[in-house]
Write a structure and sequence with these properties.
The protein is about 75% helix and about 0% strand. The protein contains eleven helices and no strands. The chain starts with a helix and ends with a helix.
Length: about 270
């Protein structure tokens, strides 16, 4: 296996695991690349692994995405007779509300984050922040409400929390799950909504990166690396989603908080020592 293929497999595994476990995918990718002294595989690879993780989200939550598709076409269909019970809140609307804050922040600040927040020391401090968020999420949680109870206000506040996850080291899933739990959602409901929110985020990231590459004409001859990265990312992401949802049905997020504290402190100590 060539060096680039090996690097693609390792980074795709890291992406697939850490995108959904609450321990920060961007932070781990920065640290792994730094430890091995690898050169960045570039935007094409970033697009490939993000789209691989998106495939996993679409497959695992296929029933929910079919619901979103039905809601999207409902305004163009003949209205059915009214029913006495109020309909559940449209999942499509909730996801749109949750996605807007991060989408706006990403467009405005992604370049600055990429230029100034990629170092291991910054990642170390932000991993400590992630651990703190997870602890607070557990402490503030009431865990009484399920998916049909999610409101547009919940979605907006979780979406605002997602803005912080533009910084490498701040876990997207961890921060949004903790925000949902602080709003009274059960762990599993908060996690499922967080993973559904990942759909638009991963799609936007993948499409934006692919568009930049297309404009720059930089696809080159990387197709084996890109295809392998996307495949590995999709398979590992699917396993990670299933594993985390099974885990949090019976356990808290404090183990992930301890991991984030430990890794963040280790990164900072090693950088001070070297």
């Amino acid at each position: 296996m060539s060096d680039h293929l090996l690097q693609a497999v390792v980074l795709a595994i890291v992406q697939g695991i850490t995108e959904f476990l609450p321990i920060s995918s961007s932070g781990h990718l920065v640290l792994v690349t730094h430890v091995f002294g690898w050169k960045d595989l570039g935007l094409p690879f970033d697009a490939a692994v993000h789209l691989g993780s998106l495939v996993a989200v679409l497959l695992y939550f296929r029933r929910e995405w079919l619901q979103v598709a039905r809601e999207a076409v409902r305004p163009f269909r003949k209205q059915a007779a009214p029913v006495s019970d109020p309909p559940p809140r449209p999942l499509l609307l909730l996801l749109l509300v949750a996605t807007i804050p991060a989408a706006v922040a990403g467009l405005l600040a992604a370049g600055a984050v990429e230029a100034h927040f990629r170092g291991p020391v910054i990642v170390g401090w932000l991993l400590l922040f992630t651990g703190t968020v997870l602890v607070l999420g557990e402490r503030l949680a009431k865990r009484r409400r399920e998916m049909p109870d999610v409101t547009a206000r919940d979605a907006l506040l979780v979406g605002v929390a997602q803005v912080a996850t533009l910084l490498p080291g701040v876990s997207r899933s961890g921060t949004t799950i903790a925000a949902g739990m602080s709003r009274g959602l059960s762990r599993e409901t908060a996690a499922r909504f967080s993973f559904l929110m990942a759909g638009p985020v991963l799609l936007g990231a993948g499409v934006l990166e692919a568009w930049k590459v297309t404009v720059e004409g930089d696809w080159g001859s990387q197709w084996p690396v890109l295809g392998l990265g996307a495949l590995v990312s999709a398979v590992v992401s699917l396993v990670s989603i299933r594993a985390l949802l099974a885990y949090i049905r019976r356990s808290s997020l404090l183990a992930f908080a301890a991991y984030s504290f430990t890794l963040g402190a280790l990164v900072l100590v090693l950088n001070l020592a070297l």
